[in-house]
Amino acid sequence: MAKSNNSIAETSWVENKLAFEDESFKELALKMERWYGVSIQFTDENIAALRFTGVFEDETINDAMRALTITASFTYKVQGKTITISR
């Protein structure tokens, strides 16, 4: 029996993967904060509302942020363990 995409996202942590499906950037940021041990802040609520689908497995936080900038128009700045996302 094939798994639904939701069950894949729900069980991906067992396989050491960060999976997300049609989640707002704000929801994804909360997962990324726990996954990577960082704090993510938004300067624009429109950016926080962007939606993403994907899986991160071996990516560093910088790899993950670069991948997300390819699919959406935003910039980010890393200062220590804080990432600020803006237009």
Task: Characterise the protein shown here.
This protein has 87 residues and is of the alpha+beta class. Helix content is 39%, strand content 31%. It is built from four helices and five strands. The chain has helices at residues 5-11, 25-36, 45-48, 61-71; strands at 18-24, 39-42, 51-56, 75-79, 82-86. Strands 2-5-4 form a three-stranded mixed beta sheet. A hairpin with a 2-residue loop joins β4 and β5 (82-86). Residues 1-5 have low confidence and may be disordered.
For this entry, give a set of tags.
87 residues; 4 helices; 3-stranded mixed sheet; alpha+beta
Question: What topology emerges from the helices and strands here?
Answer:
Layout: H1 5-11, E1 18-24, H2 25-36, E2 39-42, H3 45-48, E3 51-56, H4 61-71, E4 75-79, E5 82-86
Parallel strand pairs: 2-5
Antiparallel strand pairs: 1-3, 4-5
Quick synopsis:
With 87 residues, the protein is α+β, with helices and mostly antiparallel strands. The protein has helices at residues 5-11, 25-36, 45-48, 61-71, and strands at 18-24, 39-42, 51-56, 75-79, 82-86. The chain is 39% helix and 31% strand.
The counted number of beta strands is 5
Number of helices: 4
How do the helices and strands follow one another from N- to C-terminus? HEHEHEHEE
Low-confidence stretches: 1-5
What helical percentage do the residues reach? Answer: 25-40%
Global geometry? globular
Alpha-beta classification: alpha+beta
- Biggest sheet descriptor: 3 strands, mixed
What portion of the residues fall into strands of 2 or more residues?
25-35%
What gyration radius follows from the Cα positions, in whole Å?
A: 13 Å
Strand order in the sheet with the most strands: 2-5-4
Question: Mean pLDDT score, rounded?
Answer: 88
- Cα-to-Cα separation, first versus last residue: 43 Å
